[in-house]
Amino acid sequence: MSANSFGTLFKLTSFGESHGKAVGGVIEGVIPNTKIDEDFIQSELNRRRPGQSAITTPRNEEDKVEFLSGIFEGKATGTPIGFVIWNKDQRSKDYGNIADVYRPSHADYTYQSKYGIRDYRGGGRSSARETIARVVAGAIAKLMLQQQGISIQAFTSKVGSIKLEKEYKELNLNNTENNIVRCPDAETADKMIQYIDEVRKNKDSVGGVITCVIKNAPVGLGDPVFNKLHATLGQAMLSINAVKGFEYGLGFGSTDLKGSEHNDEFYIEEGRVRTKTNHSGGIQGGISNGEDIYFNVAFKPIATVLMEQNTVNRKGEEIKSTTKGRHDPCVLPRAVPIVEAMAAITLADHILINKMYR
């Protein structure tokens, strides 16, 4: 299986399966002498870990990262950083009944067709557990970006039909971690939590949207043709499990406007070029312009629902099947740090690439 790496200069290569011994990775491109704050990295993993609330999977994993190389006396040495997170709470027996069954909207059928073999225990490599490696790499990328004053904050802005109506500038994004759904508006968060709990009790699942805001990104990240900043951000987000859509700036909403309404007019503020509006989402011509970069990531309802459904098996027989196991009724709360991680990896990569030009 190829394509297990992401990035050009700042690069993550990940390995591991949901019910294997471990998940881990190798990170290349970390600037030497970058302070590696292991407590911060672990805190990011804790935001993603299962079993953290009543609306997430009860799988009980400590998700303690163990670094193997590339760090000396608390700093990156510039050599590859290897790391591993051991799986400790697998229940592979929960998946014995689907060894020869293709679960609706999972990767079971496509994986079996492509490779002629699949790890049916929790989805194997296609499981969202793979994203734990991304969070480690993203946390280290954040540490690099923090040195340049760049911040990345994501939050849940929609669950099912319950939408956060306020713009991100009207919100205190530091309140995102104050509730289990990770929505910075307390009133909307309560509605989201109640709805997710109803869905969970009905053995179903629900999707939604995560919004991400990047502040203080420098002007000039990205290239004008195939390596556009928004294109690589889109690739990063669409590589996350259950993601079905990506839009930056006004996105599809821009189709409602005329060009004169959508254009971001320039002006000078304290000697710096600024835009009066930011419909472009901080990116013009594929290159960052110094304004806030903001985008939305759409997540489908996760495919695993604990109710009987119609499907087929490897023999080509039409059957009914019920999935067992422990699963999130809504992936969004745990996906917030994953979105941030992939955004951080993408920006760190572009910053290193930009150094080749100047």
What does this protein structure show overall?
This protein is an alpha+beta fold and about 350 residues long. Helices cover about 25% and strands about 25% of the residues. It is built from seven helices and 19 strands. The strands form six sheets. Strands 1-2-3-7-4 form a five-stranded antiparallel sheet, with helices on one face. A five-stranded antiparallel sheet has the order 10-9-11-17-12. β5 (about 70) and β6 form a beta hairpin. It is globular and about 65 Å long.
Observed structural traits:
single chain, 5-stranded antiparallel sheet
Mean pLDDT: 92
Shape: globular
The total strand number stands at 19
Distance, first to last CA:
37 Å
Strand order of the largest sheet: 1-2-3-7-4
C-alpha Rg (nearest Å): 21 Å
Summarize the biggest pleated sheet: 5 strands, antiparallel
How big a fraction of the residues is strand?
A: 15-25%
- The helix-and-strand class reads alpha+beta
Number of helices: 7
DSSP helix fraction: 10-25%
**N-to-C order of helices and strands:** EEEHEEEEEHHEEHEHEHEEEEEEEH
Uncertain residue segments: none
In short:
By secondary structure, this protein is α+β, with helices and mostly antiparallel strands.
